[in-house]
Amino acid sequence: MTSTDQQPFLSVRDLKVHFSTEDGVVKAVDGLTFDLAKGKTLGIVGESGSGKSVTNLTILGLHDRERTAIDGEILLDGKELLTASERELERLRGNKMSMIFQDALASLSPYHTIGRQIGETYRKHTGASKKEARARAIEMLRRVGIPQPDVRVDDYPHQFSGGMRQRAMIAMALVCDPELLIADEPTTALDVTVQAQIMDLLKDLQQEFGTAIIFITHDLGVIADIADDVLVMYGGRCVERGTKKEVLRAPQHPYTWGLLGSMPSLDGPVDVPLSPIPGSPPSLLNPPSGCRFHPRCTFAEKVTDGRCSSEQPLLQVTDGRGAACHLTADQRRDFFADYAATRSH
Ligand SMILES: Nc1ncnc2c1ncn2[C@@H]1O[C@H](COP(=O)(O)OP(=O)(O)OP(=O)(O)O)[C@@H](O)[C@H]1O
Ligand code: SF4
Ligand SMILES: [Mg+2]
Q1: Which residue among 16, 32, 131, 220 has its CA within the 20 to 30 Å range from the CA of 75?
Q2: How far is the CA of 303 from the centre of ligand 2 (A)?
């Protein structure tokens, strides 16, 4: 995902998703731009309510259309999705792009067998026969590591454990070899061992199929494991992006420093106390003026003329790397060095 790539597989440009509610307009996503190349994984990280799920549901065309104003561009393999018809989107969902959610139980129907649900998705997109679809379902269950897939294919979701249901949902999402897979906190509800197995599975499947993956998570440890590039969201906007190494090793935005400080160190001493980011995420009905992070940012006073509360910092991106903050590059480097020193003691 660098500016030298000719045409990114997925290209999101200045995306805005605003909901009309009784209380006013919720600016859930407010000017988001990013690219994703085939075979790569973009990790999207940010606190609850930062717009991660809304962004991705909009890419899939699964947002609530009634009360939603959308602006910007979403190009998938050169095709504009925001102007695509519901029928076109339905065709694309499944064989070009698909999604796995946090809660497999809520996404699978309790009334049909696992095999039927995987098979029906396959039939819908390929026109395969019932017999072919069943064989494909068994093959997919085998691929995602379900033991005795030819027997378990006839189980109902409640007969599967949480980890197996998640695998079944991955099998369903991948049954038509989508080129884009969006995984929205797919491992949050699982224990650590199963989490690790699912991550390995996704990596293997990506290698095999060259799938582009968007992986949404609160957990920077998961990002460190799976992502190539990282996008940090705050209050409906991207505040920092870059490669995984750039963002995790040399973050440039005070919010990213805060996120790193609120989780156990990835490779430093284990006994460094965690410090949650003070305050709460911003209201998206009435977002703070200037930099949306300014009411919580301990560095705002280092910027002259009160610009943090009056002027929105722009995200300037060079070769896929950038942060939206008024601090100078030298200040950011020095402040991060101070911060990193406190983390390594
Ligand atoms: N249909 C809707 N109508 C009004 N507001 C909405 C709607 N859907 C989402 N929102 C609001 O948009 C904001 C972003 O929500 P989103 O679900 O994208 O957050 P998130 O980053 O995925 O959070 P989490 O980590 O908790 O899943 C939230 O403030 C949410 O309340
Ligand atoms: S622009 Fe100001 S308030 Fe926003 S992150 Fe940078 S220093 Fe903090
Ligand atoms: Mg979400």
Answers
A1: 220
A2: 8
Ligand 2 closest atom vs CA 326: 1
Q: Which residue has its alpha carbon closest to ligand 2 atom 1?
A: 325
Of 85-99, 172-186, 229-243, which one has max mean pLDDT?
A: 229-243
The full set of domain ranges for the chain reads 10-96+178-343, 104-177
CA distances from 203 to 77, 95, 137, 149, 175 (A): 22, 19, 20, 21, 16
Tell me which amino acid residue 92 is.
L
113-128 b/e (C-beta count within 10 Å ≥ 16 → b): bbbbbbbbbbbebeee
**CATH class for the domain made up of 10-96+178-343:** alpha beta
What is the distance between the alpha carbons of residues 270 and 307, in angstroms, rounded to a whole number? 37
| Cα–Cα distance for residue pair 247/59, rounded to 1 Å | 24
- The CB of 27 under 6 Å from ligand 1? The reply is no
Averaged pLDDT of the chain: 90
- Residues 31-68 pLDDT 10s: 999 999 999 999 999 999 999 999 999 999 988 778 89
Determine the Cα–Cα distance for residues 196 and 186; give it in Å rounded to an integer.
Answer: 11
Q: What is the whole-number distance in angstroms between the Cα of residue 309 and the centre of ligand 2?
A: 9
Strand ranges across the sheet with 322-323: 97-100, 180-184, 212-217, 41-45, 229-234, 237-243, 322-323
Q: Which of 233, 238, 277, 293 is the best mutation target for the ligand 2 pocket, counting ligand atoms within 8 Å of the beta carbon and taking the most? A: 293
State in Å: Cα 175 to ligand 2 middle.
44
Phi/psi region, residue 71 (left: phi>0; alpha: psi -120 to 50; beta: rest), is beta
Question: From CA 224, how far away is CA 220, in angstroms rounded?
Answer: 6
Q: Which atom of ligand 1 is nearest to the CA of 49?
A: 19
Question: What average pLDDT does range 230-241 have in this prediction?
Answer: 97
- Strand duo 322-323 + 237-243: pairing: antiparallel
